[in-house]
Amino acid sequence: MPYKNSVLNKQNYMELEERFRSLLSYNPDAICTISREGIFESVNPATVEITGYTPEEINSTLLKEITGKRDLNKIGYHFKRTLEGSSQNYYLNIKHKNGTIINLSIKNVPIQVNRKIVGIFVIAKDITKQKNIERELKDSESKYRLITENMSDVICVLDHDGIVEYASPSHKSMTGFSAEEYIGVRPFQFIHPEDVIDIQNRFDDIITNKQEFQVEHRYKHVNGDWIVVEANVKPVVDEFGHVKNVVIIARDITQRKKTEEELQESEKRLRTLINVLPDGIFFKDGEGRWLEVNSTALDLFELGDVPYRGKTDVELAEYTPRKEDLLSCFQTDEQAWTASEMVRVEEVIQTSDGNSLFLIRLRFPFFIRMVNVRVWW
Length: 377
Known about the structure:
Layout: H1 2-26, E1 30-35, E2 40-43, H2 45-51, H3 55-58, H4 72-83, E3 88-95, E4 101-113, E5 116-126, H5 128-150, E6 154-159, E7 164-167, H6 171-175, H7 193-209, E8 213-220, E9 226-237, E10 243-252, H8 254-276, E11 282-285, E12 290-293, H9 295-300, H10 313-316, H11 323-339, E13 343-350, E14 356-368, E15 371-376
Antiparallel strand pairs: 1-2, 1-5, 3-4, 4-5, 6-7, 6-10, 8-9, 9-10, 11-12, 11-15, 13-14, 14-15
């Protein structure tokens, strides 16, 4: 019976040893045993793969030979604490055989035999790729922060419910409100009452249909005024196809809108002025396309309600019985354009009722910010 128990104990020991060897052989993390003197006694295949050293090169190698001098104090501290019976967790950089640096997450576990600590298990996970990703992410975040904190446009990130998660510092210069004042609130409260319903509907639509859009609306300034902003709104979709965030990039276009309105008002005044003049007035661009003419000019060439804008003399000649007279304008226009100075032309044309009209045509080529414009009457 004692013999049988001895055989069973031996089998159990062999099975336990085989399990232990499997754990070492197939574990993706490096597992080493180190003596109390700091000598590698055994290593698993993952240790060879991670460090580049063969078992023969690693065994009996002093720990300090594959670590940087800067980490020796750290290693010594954790090594000592482990020999005192306390498991340790820390990070360490070691030199690969090819010279590259490997980032490791280390766990030290004391090895006890007969209640005596005879060595240390070192379990090391290669986190080099993770660290590289973290560094790239940090660099990317730094560049993103540099851009967002120095751009004049504002950036706002909303969650699925329309709550502000991020507001760029440029909000302060555009609206007078600090970025912190937007965090955790819905930005709709800053939108003009006459515009807010449309913006809320558009937000609901982007959550549902995931279609980006551009919109102009009035936005509250800290001084109580309303500025006009142009906003580009884009959804951010997660791996399940659901809108996770909405990114808004907006700029203040108040001055641009004011300039546009002033330009429109100026064009109205110009149109009113030239329409009351008894002379025919024509504005053409550098390619001879009609931009603006008064009613006298339209009557002169019997163009009536013909949509003239953007058409040349040659194209408009097809709409009028005064074709030859209109084509002659093209030739005298080119004379003034070539000479780059006023050209005076005296002509006689016949009206549809048989009468003769004596005309003096003056052509003025001029330039506005590199845009060529021809004016004549």
